[in-house]
Give the backbone structure.
Amino acid sequence: YIDAVRRNKYPEDRPPESHDPCGCCNCRKAQKEKKSEHEWNQTRQGEGNATYTEEQLLGVQRIKKCRNYYEILGVSRNASDEELKKAYRKLALKFHPDKNCAPGATDAFKAIGNAFAVLSNPEKRLRYDEYGDEQVTFTTPRARPYNYYRDFEADITPEELFNVFFGGHFPTGNIHMFSNVTDDPHYYRRRHRHERMQTRKEEEEDKPQTTYSAFIQLLPVLVIVIISVITQLLAANPPYSLFYKSTLGYTISRETQNLQVPYFVDKNFDKAYRGASLRDLEKTIEKDYIDYIQTSCWKEKQQKSELTNLAGLYRDERLKQKAESLKLENCEKLSKLIGLRRGG
């Protein structure tokens, strides 16, 4: 019976990989642990044959186990902006894919950037503090933890955020662009398969196309262009334009009598519009012009507000100067029009 067990454990054609002279259990266990440690040291490689340390791998595993953004950054829930920035700087440099090649380092880097981008935004942080932890505890029927990245995503990619902090430079000089975080354990296998498929697709696209296939591809574009030209030919041109358009004949400049709004007409305008018809048309022109100025003014204010907020968030002096120097020209025109209306 003992011989049979030994034969099953060690087939005749493959002897045991390790054997000690005394044959005791303690010696076998010690040799097995030594072999495992040796194998770990020999196979510690990331993507592209780049090596990584055990400390880097443990750091990635810690990020993966985190249940909320505060744990990812390693700060308390009442952490200040300076504490958040200090934690982000330290972790971003530590887990950047150019420096950390451990499996999962890319996802860890994305999670760190996403966590800081959300917590450094007062509105997003308030919303996350109110709903984030509650949603994290939810599980699906298959007991899969809720992915807290989905409802609280940043407005800026982790790589763009990294460039804001470090001026777009990294010691290795090999900068990559990444999308939002994924929690799929099979992410890397799917990514390699996608890269191979993308390579084959690019090779097929590089092959010379026949005249027929090129025509078929351009046919929808040609149809759209033809329909657009026919529509423009059949449509009646309006009697005026707020802008100079020589191709349509709007080359003669005029102003409305009430608000002095500039507009352009063709050479036959005076024959068609006089008296009451001209006054009615100029009311329409003034209304269109005011709508256009209001929309343009809103866009200018929106742009100035966004630049100001970004400058305050990242303490960027260049953005601050740009926001302060941005002129609200259309808003000034709108104020003048309102003054003319009140005066009239």
